[in-house]
Design a protein that fits this description.
Elements lengths: L5 H18 L3 H7 L6 H7 L18 H14 L1 H21 L2 H6 L1 H6 L3 E5 L15 E5 L2 E12 L6 E12 L5 E9 L5 E6 L10 E12 L3 E2 L5 H37 L1 E2 L2 E2 L4 H32 L5 H29 L10 H9 L9 H11 L5
Parallel strand pairs: 1-4
Antiparallel strand pairs: 2-3, 3-7, 4-5, 5-8, 6-7, 9-10
Helix pairs in contact: 1-4, 4-5, 4-8, 5-8, 8-9, 8-10, 8-11, 9-10, 10-11, 10-12
Bound molecules: flavin-adenine dinucleotide (FAD).
């Protein structure tokens, strides 16, 4: 059902070549320096990566979601930071504007985002609201023709680079009849007075990805910067996260695939006791298990992407995509973390050295189990999908 076409495989080869030519030679340095490679973003734009799922009228290729998954997987196979820059740039940056924005908003922001001249971010998480995203404390109050935003966001990807043009921020705009917070999404352009980007975090991994806390102090944006209708923010970010989870799953597949390739090569070449270490079942069996995990993770990811494309064609339901996205994300990210542990073990002491990419993958993998919904949140979504009162 979800076999990839020749076009997908040809496209995969193009992205792989790009990643090996433009990312691989530099990534160790970028990672060491915690350098966000803004210079790479326009090149990714030229290759069409940011515009894959964007309609042609806004500069995109109008391709299927599967193509985006293939691109993220291939970038992630070489480096996870670059993979998340694309994944967040499209899934959290462009997609909410295209899905819920007005014609004017779609004409204003996406063309530059598609071209890689700009980046957009999605600010949902707060110091006191992550998994429990509905507990958002950031407020937006109406003052004439403006929204006035006050609050703070945490850990926002692509939010503070020189290229960042806009951040979609969720904020309380009132109270629902049942007493719960009414949440809306508002576009806050970079440089708006009262919008401050906090300094970069010192992260365990994803050193070459741009992540910041954001502060809003009496930040005034025009009333027409509301994304969609007032009070729709909760529904909007749940939908945004369904797509984002398939993208993170693809990133995890790329990570696990890299570990498989690196571990297999090393086990063939490294000798101990006068023989390649791979002759020992203590080395080759975990690698065999890793190959199975990669295959299973990829299959779940492609199935979720295929369902998403079928949903877009009106043949599948949101519920099916939600469940498949959570399952793929849960399995693939946990498989990726295990894969980095296996690969690092195969590399022995070298695996602990930053000269070897497995060390970087080891540090980078953990966040996959946390971002866009932790493993526990995925289990909650899946259990609810089964009708359990989770
Ligand atoms: C590098 C990085 C990039 C990020 N990028 C973005 C971004 O671009 N935009 C954005 O909005 N956010 C972003 N995030 C935030 C990320 O999505 C959150 O960190 C994540 O959703 C978890 O929220 P939290 O950190 O508040 O953890 P918490 O919600 O405090 O959870 C802490 C622990 O408790 C567990 N837990 C909580 N509630 C339950 C429960 N009911 N049952 C069982 N376990 C539970 C969690 O699973 C977790 O293990 C990013 C984070 C990082 C680190």
């Amino acid at each position: 059902m979800y076999e990839l076409s020749k076009e997908h495989e040809d496209f995969r080869a193009v992205v792989r070549e790009f990643a090996e030519a433009e990312v691989s030679p530099h990534i160790a340095q970028w990672d060491r320096d915690s350098h966000f490679p803004a210079e790479l973003v326009p090149k990714m734009g030229d290759l069409g990566l940011f515009g894959l799922v964007v309609p042609e009228e806004f500069g995109g290729a109008d391709a299927d979601f599967m193509s985006l998954v293939v691109a993220i997987e291939e970038l992630g196979r070489v480096d996870q930071s670059v993979g998340i820059t694309l994944s967040a740039g499209v899934g959290l940056g462009i997609n909410p504007i295209l899905s819920f924005g007005s014609q004017e908003q779609k004409e204003r922001f996406p063309p530059d985002l598609v071209a890689g001249r700009a980046l957009a971010a999605f600010g949902l998480t707060e110091p006191g609201a992550g998994s429990d995203a509905g507990a958002t404390r950031t407020r937006a109050t109406r003052d004439g023709d403006y929204w006035v935003v006050n609050g703070a966001k945490s850990f926002i990807t692509n939010s503070g680079s020189d290229l960042t043009s806009v951040v979609t921020v969720t904020a309380r705009t009132g109270t629902n009849d049942d007493g719960s917070a009414q949440v809306s999404a508002i576009l806050v352009p970079a440089g708006t007075p009262g919008f401050t980007v906090d300094p970069s975090y010192h992260k365990l991994g994803w050193h070459a990805s741009d992540t910041h806390g954001l502060t809003f102090e009496d930040c005034r944006v025009p009333a027409d910067h509301l994304l969609g209708d007032e009070g729709q923010g909760f529904r909007q970010f749940l939908k945004t996260l369904d797509d984002g989870r398939i993208a993170i799953s693809a990133l995890a597949v790329g990570c696990a695939q890299a570990c498989l390739e690196l571990g297999t090569d090393y086990a063939k070449g490294r000798e101990a006791f006068g023989r390649p270490i791979g002759v020992n079942q203590g080395v080759s069996f975990p690698i065999a298990d890793l190959a199975v995990a990669v295959e299973a993770a990829r299959t779940l990811t492609y199935k979720a992407a295929w369902l998403k494309d079928e949903l877009n064609a009106g043949r599948r339901s949101v519920k099916e995509v939600k469940q498949a996205a959570a399952m793929a994300k849960l399995f693939s990210t946990e498989a990726a973390v295990s894969a980095t542990r296996t690969a690092t073990q195969v590399f022995g002491g070298n695996g602990f050295m930053e000269e070897y990419p497995v060390a970087r993958f080891y540090r980078d993998a953990k966040i996959l189990e946390i971002g866009e919904g932790t493993s526990e949140v995925q289990r909650m979504v899946i259990a609810r999908g089964l009708g359990l009162p989770a």
